[in-house]
UniProtKB/TrEMBL annotation:
Keyword Transferase tagged: yes
InterPro entries attached to this UniProt entry: Aminotrans_3 (IPR005814), Aminotrans_3_PPA_site (IPR049704), PyrdxlP-dep_Trfase (IPR015424), PyrdxlP-dep_Trfase_major (IPR015421), PyrdxlP-dep_Trfase_small (IPR015422)
Swiss-Prot/TrEMBL keywords: Aminotransferase, Pyridoxal phosphate, Transferase
CDD domains: OAT_like (cd00610)
GO MF, one example: transaminase activity
Name under which the protein is recorded: Aminotransferase class III-fold pyridoxal phosphate-dependent enzyme
Similarity comment text for this entry: Belongs to the class-III pyridoxal-phosphate-dependent aminotransferase family.
PANTHER family noted in UniProt: AMINOTRANSFERASE, AMINOTRANSFERASE CLASS-III
Length: 323
């Protein structure tokens, strides 16, 4: 009697048998039976440079020969500084500080924590609530899942989720508010914007820490861009009520929308940009956040001209960074 092969992998779907991929070539994946698959989705929208690029593998191998890991509370490397500089020069003028993580979920968690730390150290102790949007995705860890609006992913974990608030994403084709796009634009009165302010006021501006949003709604709506003027008004609201604006570019960053970051097309500077996927094209678990100078310097300029004390961010968070 043949011995049943024991499987030690905890599969994403325990009832499914997956093909075993042996290698990839450009946009294709090849399994152990020689069958070729077109990787039309770039994995989880990550493999944007293609598979099997030898020069990338060689560079990774060379670095692996030098050092496996350094703890960034004690050491740094030239590779860390070089990558941070490269990314910093790709972003809007005042987003200059890059903090690395191992994935997009962790990048968004870090951004939410930094927003809270920023307010807390500035004396705004009550600011802790995050506002996200329904039909959005920011990751599958508890904090990022709480901020996101993917109902099917949230459902099983509802008792564990944080008490974050949500508004609807702008989706003019099937407006969740029952409005018509032409009417909204003609009257310069977008309900998806007025609902954000209503939510802030209901929660109390003194309690709201951050607003996290995708520049283009990705997996939950299928690449839906915002209506004209949406993000300019979002920036104004965040300034008015001293709320940290986090733009989640895990999916859109690194050339996916025709510019380095989709933020460049929005006409604003967010307080934090989070990134992932495209930064390593799937060759390594790498992501992070890019932080505006005003958070580093500790002053939050609002439309009323208020500013706050300097903060110290050393040791706020510690995570893996590339060697």
């Amino acid at each position: 009697m043949d011995r049943i092969k024991k499987d030690y992998v905890f599969h994403r779907d325990l009832k499914k048998e997956y093909p075993i991929i042996t290698h990839g070539e450009g946009v294709y994946l090849i399994d152990e039976d020689g069958k070729t698959y077109l990787d039309a989705c770039s994995g989880a929208v990550a493999a944007n440079l293609g598979h099997g690029i030898a020069s990338i593998g060689d560079a990774m191998a060379e670095q692996a020969k030098k050092a496996a890991f350094v703890h960034t509370m004690r050491f740094e490397t030239k590779a860390l500084h070089k990558l941070a500089e490269t990314i910093g020069k790709m972003t809007p003028d005042h987003l200059n500080r890059v903090y690395f993580t191992t994935g997009g979920s962790e990048a968004n968690e870090s951004a939410l924590k930094l927003a809270r730390q920023y307010h807390r150290d500035a004396g705004r102790q009550q600011k802790h609530i995050v506002i996200g949007r329904w039909q959005s995705y920011h990751g599958n860890t508890i904090g990022s899942l709480s901020a996101g609006g993917d109902v099917k992913r949230r459902h099983a974990y509802t008792p564990n989720l944080l008490n974050y608030a949500h508004v609807y994403s702008p989706y003019c084709h099937r407006c969740p508010y029952g409005r018509q796009k032409d009417d909204c634009l003609a009257k310069e009165n977008l309900t998806c914007l007025t609902d954000i302010e209503r939510t802030i006021l209901e929660l109390g501006p003194e309690n709201v820490s951050a607003f996290i949003v995708e520049p283009i709604v990705g997996s939950q709506q299928g690449a839906v861009p915002p209506p004209p003027g949406y993000f300019e008004k979002v920036r104004e609201l965040c300034d008015r009520y001293e709320i940290v604006l986090i733009i989640d570019e895990v999916m859109t960053g690194f050339g996916r929308t025709g510019t380095n970051f989709a933020t460049e097309q929005l006409g604003i500077e967010p307080d934090i940009i989070t990134f992932g996927k495209g930064v390593s094209a799937g060759y390594a678990p790498l992501a992070g956040m890019i932080v505006h100078d005003r958070l580093i310097n500790g002053s939050f300029k609002t439309v009323t001209g208020n500013s706050y004390m300097a903060i110290h961010i050393v040791g706020i968070l510690w995570q893996w960074q590339p060697v």
